[in-house]
What we know:
Blueprint: H1 6-14, E1 19-23, H2 48-51, H3 54-59, H4 61-77, H5 82-93, E2 97-101, H6 107-110, E3 118-120, E4 123-130, E5 137-138, H7 184-188, E6 195-199, H8 210-219, E7 225-229, H9 238-247, E8 251-255, E9 270-272, H10 276-283, H11 285-288
Parallel strand pairs: 1-2, 1-7, 2-3, 7-8, 8-9
Antiparallel strand pairs: 4-5, 4-6
This protein binds zinc ion (ZN).
Amino acid sequence: MPRTDVNEFKQLINGSTRILALCGAGLSAASGLPTFRGAGGLWRNHEPTSLATPEAFAIDPGLVWLFYAWRRHMALKAKPNKAHYALAELAKKKEHFLCLSQNVDGLSPRASHPTRSLRLLHGNLFDLKCFNQCGYIEPNVLRDPLCPALAPAAEDYPPDQTMPLLDPTIPTPKIKLSDLPQCPNCKEEGKASPLRPGVVWFGENLPDGMLEEVDDWVEEGKIDVMLVIGTAAAVYPAAGYTQMAKARGAVVAVFNPDVSARAGLGGNDFFFQGDSAYFLPKVLEDIIGEVNVPE
Ligand SMILES: [Zn+2]
């Protein structure tokens, strides 16, 4: 059984140099962002996974953009929580800390997590990139709505009313390709191409060079601690990183409200059952001090 003692873990992490973190959806749970797993998971009458492919975008870019415009709007309404700020502070205090996040919600960047220590494995909802793959990227576009055609995804309704966009009986507005954001590079060359969300879709590779960078960091030497936050250590891709870190000597600490997330942990590892927004500031307090969330 893994250890659960906060003070024991504090001693370990206080004296640690090389720290790796892997974050999943649970990191943003305390920010109130809806996750698709568990809750029936449909968006209108679509499986969200069926909208997250280049093929779906090629067939109906307006529909796919409405889905992502809605997710951008939800993410912008949410605020980074204490766990995001705690990790951002850890990055400022520990030079050899690398944080991998599977979240596309932009909350770690908005908590001012230093870019040098943050790798967004699945991209960012707020980056725009060329669908034609000419290489054009516009990072961190927080404008909401992104363009007039996507305004129906950026409306707020009282809690007792369903947003028309989310009601599958109401047809979605028809959006012309030319009403979506366009790639300025391709336009200059006389080829029109829409911009798409800068997230990694099913069947796509992770952003260029990112895996190599992570591998290089891992290869540099012993890893003292690996934090697995809001995702299960035994499920891929977390499992792959956890194994790599263990092979480099890391003690693994899992932060998760779900007890099944401790699967695969040994007696020298740690398991903190609960919200990472509660546990992370607590176990890191000697290093980062008190975590303040700006109003
Ligand atoms: Zn382009």
